[in-house]
Amino acid sequence: MTRSDYIKSIFAFEDINIINLDFLYPDELYITVSPFDFTKSCNLLHKHLGLAVATFFAEDLRTGSNVFRLYCGFLSIQIHAWVFVCQDVASGNPKFASIAKDIYSASLFEREIKEMFGIEPVGNPDLRSLKLHDEVWPKGYYPLLKDFFRPQENSGTGSRYQFKRVEGEGIFEVPVGPVHAGVIGPGHFRFSVAGEPIINLEIRLGWTHRGIEKLLEGKSIDEAVSIFERISGDTAFGYSMAFCRSVE
């Protein structure tokens, strides 16, 4: 049985109609389904194959086809490939059914899709800002849209980020960050603790977000390398090498 036939057999068991299935690259399988079957397809891969959501992102295709396309990615050990479940979202009604209420690993990705593209994950239990902080970023500006234009000035919404609080006798809240070095630099962490046990951890990200993805749009490979070398001062070689390897 081929890898494609294996996936088709699993989807047929759940009566999911596959619109298109194709290996665009030797280790990347793309499965296009209807919006009706998208949630069911992601849950199928998550539960039956034991796969977490490894990536979940959107693409702005409005110029050519007047839609956004969603890609929910799983890394499958069974077929030794990335498996992307894809669906189109009409630009006139930019919404999709959230999978985060069933698959927790999709939550942060859905929050990013909402604030970068303005596509709402309906039913997501947590739609707080992720990278574009309310204190400085105005509403209605979505940086990864192809027709995005920069706001004239940073004028926040006036609202404050709502941290979830744990209260009770013996509960202490310990804030950490957001000034760090290295990989935890983008995070602000609030630990709710009762002595040694951690009762709850609230993470607010985005403190080093600088719009690198938007800066790279339209750049040549040589121009992109110079941007990658400047993403982080202590990882200049690592980022540029990763980019070069991906291009090669």
Low-confidence stretches: none
| Helix run count | 7
Using only C-alpha atoms, the radius of gyration works out to 20 Å
Shape: globular
Mean pLDDT level = 88
SSE-based structural type? alpha+beta
- Give the H and E element order: HEEHEHEEEHEEEEHHH
Helix content: 25-40%
Q: Give the beta-strand count.
A: 10
Distance between the termini: 31 Å
Q: Note the main sheet.
A: 5 strands, mixed
| Sheet with most strands: strand arrangement | 1-2-5-4-3
Write up what this structure looks like.
With 248 residues, the protein is of the alpha+beta class. It is built from seven helices and ten strands. The strands form three sheets. Strands 1-2-5-4-3 form a five-stranded mixed sheet. β6 (95-97), α4 and β7 form a beta-alpha-beta unit. The longest helix is centred in the first third of the chain and has 14 residues, at 35-48. The radius of gyration is 20 Å and the shape is globular. The model has no long low-confidence stretch (mean pLDDT 88).
What is the compact description of this entry?
The protein is 26% helix and 26% strand.
Explain the layout of strands and helices:
Layout (H helix, E strand, L loop, with lengths): L2 H11 L4 E8 L2 E6 L1 H14 L6 E7 H4 L1 E10 L4 E10 L4 E3 L9 H11 L2 E3 L49 E5 L11 E6 L4 E7 L7 H5 L4 H8 L7 H12 L1
Parallel strand pairs: 2-5, 6-7
Antiparallel strand pairs: 1-2, 3-4, 4-5, 8-9, 9-10
Helix pairs in contact: 6-7
